[in-house]
Structures are given as C-alpha cells and as structure tokens.
C-alpha cells in the first residue's frame, strides 16, 4: 500500500441549497479532509445530504459555496482533472439492463478512451475478480441486486481511478453480498492504495470499513472521528438486567452506582461500553450478593443511538421558522 502522504479529498465550507430563493438548505458548510489510501465514511440518515456531497465532489452538480480539492485538482478550476482521476458508483445502479455484463464494461472502456484490446483485458480481469465471469454474457436484466452492484463497481474501476466514490454501496444487499462487497472495497485499498469515499446509513458498515467517519445530519457534520472515537461518544450502550420480582430489583439497584430503572418492567439499565470486562464485573457483583437476574441483554450503541445522541436537540427541519437562509 502507498504510504499515506497526501490528501485525496479536502473540502471547506461546502454549501448547497435548492428552491427558488435557495431556502431549502441541503449542505450548510461541510468541511472534510481525507488522506490518500484511506477509507472515509459519510454516515447519515435519509435526506442528510450524503448524495449531494458526493455529487458535488465528483463534479456532477455545482456547489453554491465553499471550495474543494479532489486527487490534487481544484473543483472550481479543474473539474476535468477531477473527472479523470475519480470513479463514481451512484446510489442507484448505472448499469444498462439490456446489455450484458461484458458489454457494459466495454462501454465504460470506450467512454474512458481505452483501446479495444486493453478495454477487453481490463473487463475480463474485473469480471473474474468480482466473480461475474460466468455471467459475463448474460443480459444484466437477469442479474440479482448483488450482482448488479458488483458490476456497477467493476464499471467504476475500468478507468483505474485513484479516488472512488461509493454512494451507499451495500444498501439493499443481503448479509453475504454485503460482506463480499466489503471484501472488495478493502482489497481495493490494500492492493491498489486507492482512496474510498463511501456513504452509508449503517454504523456497522462504517465501523467495518472506514478509517475515519463523519456523521452528517441536516447538511452539517455533527461528529467526526474513528469508529472507536465515535462509539465512545455515543451514550446508549448499556446492560439490561431483568429480575423476577420487585425485591430482587430493589436489592440489585442498590449495588450499582448509576443505573436506570424501570419498576414496571423489573429491569435495570447499567451504562456499559459493551466490553466483556464490564459484563463480567456486573455478573460478579450480582453473584457476590446472591442475586440472580432472570435475563441479561447487552445493548451496544447503534445508528439510532448515534442520531438520538447527536441530533436530539436540533430544531425541527420541517418547521419553516428554523430554516436557515443560504449564505452565499
Ligand atoms: N434536485 C433537488 N431539488 C430539490 N431538493 C433536492 C434535490 N436534490 C436533493 N434534494 C434534497 O436535498 C436533501 C438531501 O438529499 P440527499 O440525496 O443528498 O440525501 P442523502 O443523505 O443522500 O439521503 P438518502 O440516504 O435518502 O440517499 C433532501 O432533503 C433532498 O430532498
Ligand atoms: Mg443518497
């Protein structure tokens, strides 16, 4: 892998708004820095502005404000340079259903101005690599969603891009296909040292793949860091103990310093990082006091917690009074 010397993507104050007066603010000053040869995940719920960010950085749409450099080229002055250096796999597959997998790849090779032999060679190699060789001559209309996604990514790779944008690469895939896609993405970074910018709604996906994660909400980055750093910031991880009766609950509640308690459910919620040492400590404390819980569940922070924690105090975006005017 290349040493991560340079910066693959940087953005400062990206803004985008829609509507006649620009009153629907979609990106409200987004800053990003992504080192070369790393995986960056932009995590956010529906409508957060993920696709808009990808579209701006990949030159598909123009920002209203801010600046960005991608693969060493300036967005404002050298969009062509960016286009030549990147690959984009959109949220919705760009494959042509009427063509075969092979023909789709050849089409991409033509668009990249590769000569026929080189195009054919790259296409065959990609089909092999993505386990699509057997299906190479079948029309894409007969492909499953997972195959389509793989072909879509293969098409992105025909041009040998240095920076690859993947907009929700695994949404709608089953767990096995998702894992295959993760392996492919990891391989791209490990073998070719490319930089990956991906968007996702799944914390687990960001956790699995990304060196750094930024959480986007209502067009603003509300948190940024490694998966570990973000998870540490997420409240919501807890051990949930259920007891047989109120007396046991009462006795157990006295044993732990900070607990949440639900008397009707006969449960205690003990804050926890989800780690085994904490779990063991809780069980030991109960054991030592001769109290047994009826059931125990470990709740680790998930995307719901992330968004509840990070966006709980925000104004309602649907409330017109809270809409910000685009500062252009
Ligand atoms: N051409 C457009 N005109 C008006 N509004 C738009 C346009 N494109 C996007 N938007 C709005 O911008 C907001 C952000 O959209 P975007 O597609 O970037 O979100 P996203 O984070 O990719 O969401 P998803 O997870 O659903 O793909 C949404 O409220 C969307 O309705
Ligand atoms: Mg999107």
TrEMBL record:
Q: Which Gene3D superfamilies match?
A: P-loop containing nucleotide triphosphate hydrolases (3.40.50.300)
What's the chief localization of this chain?
membrane
Q: Where in the cell is it found?
A: Cell membrane
Recite the UniProt keywords alphabetically: Antibiotic resistance, ATP-binding, Cell membrane, Membrane, Nucleotide-binding, Translocase, Transport
**How does the entry describe its membrane topology?**
Peripheral membrane protein
The ABC transporter domain extends over 9-243
Q: Which residues form a coiled coil?
A: none
GO terms assigned for molecular function: ATP binding
**Stretches that traverse the bilayer:** none
The entry assigns this protein to a family as follows: Belongs to the ABC transporter superfamily. Drug exporter-1 (DrugE1) (TC 3.A.1.105) family.
Q: What is this protein called?
A: Daunorubicin resistance protein DrrA family ABC transporter ATP-binding protein
């Amino acid at each position: 892998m290349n040493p991560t010397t340079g910066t693959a993507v940087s953005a400062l104050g990206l803004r985008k708004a829609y509507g006649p007066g620009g009153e629907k603010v979609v990106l409200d000053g987004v800053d990003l820095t992504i080192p070369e040869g790393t995986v960056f995940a932009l995590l956010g719920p529906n409508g957060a502005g993920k696709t808009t960010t990808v579209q701006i950085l990949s030159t598909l749409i123009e920002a209203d404000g801010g600046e960005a450099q991608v693969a060493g080229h300036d967005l404002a002055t050298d969009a062509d340079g960016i286009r030549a250096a990147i690959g984009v796999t959109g949220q919705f597959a760009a494959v042509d259903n009427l063509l075969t997998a092979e023909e789709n790849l050849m089409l991409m090779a033509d668009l990249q101005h590769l000569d026929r032999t080189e195009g054919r060679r790259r296409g065959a190699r990609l089909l092999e690599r993505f386990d699509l060789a057997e299906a190479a001559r079948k029309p894409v209309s007969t492909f499953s969603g997972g195959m389509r996604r793989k072909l879509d990514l293969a098409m992105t790779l025909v041009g040998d891009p240095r920076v690859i944008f993947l907009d929700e690469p695994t949404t709608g895939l089953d767990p096995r296909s998702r894992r295959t896609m993760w392996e492919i993405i990891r391989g791209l970074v490990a073998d070719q040292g490319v930089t990956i910018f991906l968007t996702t709604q799944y914390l687990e996906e960001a956790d699995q793949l990304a060196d750094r994660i930024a959480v986007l909400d209502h067009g603003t980055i509300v948190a940024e860091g490694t998966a570990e750093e973000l998870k540490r910031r997420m409240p919501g991880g807890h051990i949930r103990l259920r007891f047989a009766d109120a007396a046991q609950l009462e006795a157990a509640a006295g044993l732990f310093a900070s607990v949440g308690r639900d008397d009707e459910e006969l449960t205690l919620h003990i804050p926890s990082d989800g780690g085994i040492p904490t779990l063991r400590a809780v069980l030991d404390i109960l054991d030592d006091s001769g109290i047994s819980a009826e059931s125990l569940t470990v709740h680790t922070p998930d995307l719901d917690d992330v968004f509840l924690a990070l966006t709980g105090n925000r104004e309602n975006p649907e409330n017109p009074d809270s809409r910000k005017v685009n500062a252009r």
